[in-house]
Fold this protein.
Amino acid sequence: FAENMSVDTFRAQRDAHGVVACQSEHWQAMLELGWAGILVPEQFGGSEFGLRGLGVICTEAAKNLAATPLVSTAVLGVTILNECEPSELRDRLLDEIMTGQSQVAVTDSEINNPLNFVAEGMATTILCAPQSDGAGIIELRPEDKQPVSLLDHRDYARVDVARLECAELLAFSSSTAMDKIRNTGAAITACELFGISSEAFDRTLAYLREREQFGQKIGAFQALQHRMAKAYMQLQMLKSVIYDAMEAVESDRKDAKQACSHAKVLANQTAQLITTEAIQLHGGMGITDELDIGLFYKRARVLQSAWGSTSVHKQRFAEASGF
């Protein structure tokens, strides 16, 4: 990611097009590395390496603000299909994802509701809308979607599913499928927020070590050291909680819902703390577009609402715990 899809690449594409989307050659390189098949069962040609393996990749992508279909297609799309009953369509879509023939946009909204801000929506031709009893597979035409501009300059589309016809409704193989999908969405978004927070922390630490004021490096000021120490401790706690959440999803633990909601809440809070501190500790220019810190701040703000806000997951955690 650092060599091919760096923050400089993000800036160049944003300045040229206003929207940052994954380039075909970059996605092809990821396909050749087998990343799209990490969650696909071995019997279908995937590596079945697990969510933790793919979570590490998504974390590194987030550190570089790399725009990829990994989350929408390789994580959420494959997870939904894995939760469906065997069928010719399901097996074909899994194969098409691994070979790059299909990219999937995913939403957790009800199929009879208008859908807004579908991530990677303009670049995809398949919309997967999971419901209580199955997943609606919808083929999207260019006229079915409208581009939406959000704070992070990524690819989003507004799609009104109520006006579309499902190509097919794939039945779920268990009653816990929706929980598994939403747990996965929360956990992988927490991974992205962890990557953003880690990079913002490292960039701020480097700045404190080189910026001089009153004849010394500002990193020598104890008050700033205390603020960075707090941020570092928060990062380390988040890392442990995220790995626990992904393990809970992989092993179908009974407390997976609580673990994933815990991870998303802590990821939201950590990103809020660290990206805000990063801007403040960079001084007045921290908020300007000249520095990359603001780009991480904006991306974090969008992801904080993705697959459940802090309040939503606090409520979810309470309900799952019997409160």
In short: The longest helix spans residues 177-210. The chain has a mean pLDDT of 92. The first strand starts at residue 104 and ends at 106. The CA atoms of residues 73 and 104 lie 5 Å apart.
